[in-house]
Amino acid sequence: MSHVHLPGSAAEAADLLRNGGWLVGGGTVVMPRVNTGAVPVDSLVSLRRAGLDDITVDGRRASIGAAATLADVGEHDALAFLLPVIRSIASPPVRNLATVGGNLVVGQPYGDLAVALLALDARVEVLGADGVREVGVAELTVGGAEVLTAVHLDVPDSGTWFYRKAMRRRHNSAAIVTVAAVVAVGDGVVRQARIALGGLAPRPVRAPAAERVLLGQPFDRPTVEAAASAARQGVTPLDDAYASAWYRDRVLPVHVRRALLGED
């Protein structure tokens, strides 16, 4: 039987972790492993009472506590653009428990919110022995005695946000390919393009070649199709129980195109 700690703050949680043990947010990944004995753990440090579940939006700037649940994010009016992302993840009971922080550190092909946060150029706060550091999603690593505390992002302008997740089943399935993007158009051409991909590598990745194809060009079908083809550059898809690397490589351009053009 593991001993469960319920610290009242992130700092207290980090102190407890220095003595070993596992950090628990919603427990949707950790607890099945603990309960089946797959991972022997003597100590669990839960963030349930650590005060890390606030969500605040001031103008376009949003801050989301790492212990906020996916359901909390999906129910926040100012973050309504993320609702398709949230609804594509697991099932309602899981979303009621799973946390933003947990979704950021879980390995692909899970972690669809992490893909979205990468496309949004979000910044993540991590508390450790040397204080708080802030990193981008792509550079995020969390040590054994560190606690993810918050995520900061800018809410995208209307019409600039795109998202698509390809799955084996319509609901409650891991990703074959996930595409999240922010594409802003001005004076008839693309002025900003950030495309993030999930389900392909251990962590979400950007698609810089596709972004370069879009920049400075009209946001039309020919340009999008060229960008979709370029998205394969530098990406080495993985094999898993959901899809082969070969299949992911073949369908990646299809889903990038569908995401950006809003096609089914």
From TrEMBL:
Identify the Pfam families for this entry: CO_deh_flav_C, FAD_binding_5
Q: Which UniProt keywords apply?
A: FAD, Flavoprotein, Oxidoreductase
List the Gene Ontology MF annotations in alphabetical order: FAD binding; oxidoreductase activity
Q: Which SUPFAM superfamilies match?
A: CO dehydrogenase flavoprotein C-terminal domain-like (SSF55447), FAD-binding/transporter-associated domain-like (SSF56176)
The chain positions of domain FAD-binding PCMH-type read 1-158
List the PROSITE patterns hit by this protein, alphabetically.
FAD_PCMH (PS51387)
Q: Tell me the protein's name.
A: FAD-binding PCMH-type domain-containing protein
Species annotation: Actinophytocola xinjiangensis
